[in-house]
Amino acid sequence: MSEHPNLRVADDDGVRVITIDRPEAKNALDSAMRNALIDDVADADIDAEVHAVVITATDPVFSAGVDFKESMQPAATGDGAPAVRRRVDWALRPDPAAALRACITPTICAVNGACVSGALEIALSCTFAIASERARFADTHARLNVVAGWGLSALLPRAVGVRKAREMSITGNFVDAEEALRIGLVNHVVPHDELLARAVALARDISPQPAVREVLRLYARNEGLSLSEALAMERDWTVHRTHDADAFRSLGQEAAKRGSAE
Description:
Blueprint: E1 7-12, E2 15-20, H1 31-46, E3 52-57, H2 68-71, E4 74-76, E5 82-85, H3 96-102, E6 107-111, E7 114-116, H4 118-125, E8 128-132, E9 136-138, H5 152-160, H6 162-171, E10 175-176, H7 177-183, E11 188-190, H8 195-205, H9 211-222, H10 227-242, H11 245-261
Parallel strand pairs: 2-3, 3-6, 6-8, 7-9, 8-11
Antiparallel strand pairs: 1-2, 4-5, 9-10
Helix pairs in contact: 1-3, 3-4, 4-5, 5-6
């Protein structure tokens, strides 16, 4: 695990909780924090003791997304003279949203407050999301005269529908928690003081069986396919995995033993 001072990582009986902790900067993610978050997600994905990951933040906001103050600092030229302010690099690597989409361990985004732009892309890239009643969501990229680079234009319309996604992206208007639930942006809205406990409880509801990862892989592969293509994908996937049935059952038995021991 990383040891970044603005990312707190704690394990809670098989659930890894990652807390963004930079409230003085609205929990904005500078490049070092983004690299650390990528490392923490990757580490959780290969840790056999971690069955789910919860990502949350210190109140009062979830995150303002990318730290634009860092991204817009003057760059130095080869002779040491200040260069033009960088206006495009902010959306490039490091990209924690891509790391979350690559993670097969289930990830839950517990949104405690305002979740803006890059932070919204992080929430969309998690397996699912749970929101405090104080949560608010907005895509403010266009207001800042930039275009999203962590997958928002692909992920947001898939979550809320293309018309609502267009409205959010070109107005920058906020969506409150109840509307986020109604349009499918989050799975649950809970009282603010219960957010983390409810997120961890939901994480514990996830089956520890190896089939969970297979299901998530299949969902990911089926995105963008037609119904007939998705049905064929599931059929082919099942046939392919049948050849590994003994090993698959063995993994399930091992997981059951671990659960009994706990």
